Amino acid sequence: MLDCKDGVLKVNLLMNRASHWADVYSYVPYEGRVDIKIKQSLRRVSVRMPEWVKGTGQQVGCTINGKDANFKWDGRYIRLGSVRPGDRISVTVPIYEWTTTRKVGGGSYTYTLRGNTVISVD
């Protein structure tokens, strides 16, 4: 879910997770927000954007300690600069409800998802 090498933290999934480097607090699927509480000094933080964020043109926002933060796109990740213990990063993404139909065990089912969370099956 997250990894840290040479002072670079990578958050790969927007899910709750505690670690030695940072704690991740996810609000998905209720809202498109994830907060990251930094526990140690880091050179860089990268946060992977979910599949429903289709590119750099969509509304992705980021603050550090409540102030707008600049970030750069690096493939599916947004890349932030250095942070210190006690810093709080907040990333916001658009969140959508969508449906998909899949065949499972000989039956066809329609799934309604909000973000990556299945909220109903018909």
Task: Summarize the entry for a quick read.
The chain is mainly beta. The chain has strands at 2-5, 8-11, 17-18, 22-26, 33-38, 44-48, 61-64, 67-68, 72-74, 77-80, 88-92, 97-104, 107-114, 117-121.
Report on this structure.
The chain is mainly β and 122 residues long. It has strands at residues 2-5, 8-11, 17-18, 22-26, 33-38, 44-48, 61-64, 67-68, 72-74, 77-80, 88-92, 97-104, 107-114, 117-121. The strands form three sheets. It has a six-stranded antiparallel β-sheet with strand order 3-4-5-11-7-8, with no helix packed on it. It is elongated and about 50 Å long.
How would you describe this structure in keywords?
five-stranded mixed β-sheet, mainly beta, 122 residues, six-stranded antiparallel β-sheet
> Structural class, from helix and strand content?
mainly beta
Helix content: under 10%
Low-confidence stretches: none
Q: Evaluate the radius of gyration.
A: 16 Å
Distance between the termini: 30 Å
Spatial shape: elongated
Number of helices: 0
H/E order of the elements? EEEEEEEEEEEEEE
User: How many strands, which pairing sense, and closed or not: the largest β-sheet?
Assistant: 6 strands, antiparallel
For the biggest β-sheet, the strand order reads 3-4-5-11-7-8
**Beta-strand share of residues:** over 45%
Q: Quick check: average pLDDT? A: 93
The total beta strand count reads 14
SSE map:
Blueprint: E1 2-5, E2 8-11, E3 17-18, E4 22-26, E5 33-38, E6 44-48, E7 61-64, E8 67-68, E9 72-74, E10 77-80, E11 88-92, E12 97-104, E13 107-114, E14 117-121
Parallel strand pairs: 2-6
Antiparallel strand pairs: 1-2, 3-4, 4-5, 5-11, 6-10, 7-8, 7-11, 9-10, 12-13, 13-14
